[in-house]
Predict the structure.
Amino acid sequence: MTNAWQKTMIALARSPVAKRLAQRTIGSSALARQYVGGADAAEAVNTARELLSRCAIAASLFHLGEYVDTPQLAESNFQAKIAAARLAGEAGIDVHVSVDPTQLGYLFDPEGAEARMAAIADAIRVAAAGRSGVHMLMLDMEDASVTDATIALHDTMARAGLPVGLTLQAYRHRTLEDLRRAIETGARVRLVKGAFAAGPPLALQKEREIKANYRKLISLMLSPQAKSAGFYPVIATHDTALHDHARHEARSHGWQPGEYEFEMLLGVRTNVAEALAREGERVRLYVPFGPDWWPYAVRRIGENPRNALLLARSAVSRD
Ligand SMILES: Cc1cc2nc3c(=O)[nH]c(=O)nc-3n(C[C@H](O)[C@H](O)[C@H](O)COP(=O)(O)OP(=O)(O)OC[C@H]3O[C@@H](n4cnc5c(N)ncnc54)[C@H](O)[C@@H]3O)c2cc1C
């Protein structure tokens, strides 16, 4: 059932007609409102401010649009990220911007993408200057073909003293080694389960195995060695058993809330995020924004058949 549902949602996410029809209505669609922080950087920053003042939850701003294949799209993604950094700085919130290398043109112009990436990290540094908070360019991790390049980008920027973080995927066999290296250098790592298709030579396949590996990696991220290396763990999952494990490891090894954080997606299990924040944990939501929101929002719907109601409501109502 779940599989058929997910396949239907993937087809819908890829449908140009559905996308065209739906994206005309960003201001009014229930679907967009649930998962997307706004049509542009200014709206996303308003969403982030509101989250912070209403429930003490921080945000990472993400301009939607991956795997771009033209210099024009790479440039407009770049400008949107720069605007997000500047506006977050002006609003006095965390200057925290998530970036996919392929959205800056990595696939057809790696040097250009690297330069844009460094310019965004520098804009974050400038926008956050002199303010406490968690300010960084967080590199998302895409499919296996760009893993080495993404890690290399991260390492180059970190060595240059730029504020960067790296996402690693618990389903990849290589992640244990990548994480060990990142811990040694006191990096900031967001751990996710992994969302891209990757076969058995590259990745664990069964949910049970991925979850067990995630648990093991959490223990490493919240170990005494990681703490003394100045490592910053980001536990990015909606899985409450993994939250519990992380909190247990943190307490056992003397980590205080705020020395690590939980990150979830805007609109997904909001009650869980709010409860963690109420209990004193540092929580961040990934706040996507931009006009190209349809594929992203429909993928979120596909993750849980119970979200069908939201899709139906959004199809019939524009209020
Ligand atoms: C902040 C953040 C950044 C991410 N960045 C990346 C990245 O750079 N690269 C990458 O490969 N992946 C990324 N991901 C996605 C990640 O790899 C997983 O695919 C995704 O988080 C689902 O796994 P999970 O552990 O959160 O939840 P699951 O194991 O799928 O589910 C845990 C619980 O949450 C519920 N749940 C999950 N999704 C929904 C939903 N949409 N609606 C309602 N309930 C839901 C489930 O029903 C279940 O009860 C990111 C995820 C987050 C939270």
About this structure: Residues 140-141, 167, 169, 192-196, 236-239, 263-265, 268-269, 286, 300, 303-304, 307 surround flavin-adenine dinucleotide (CB under 6 Å).
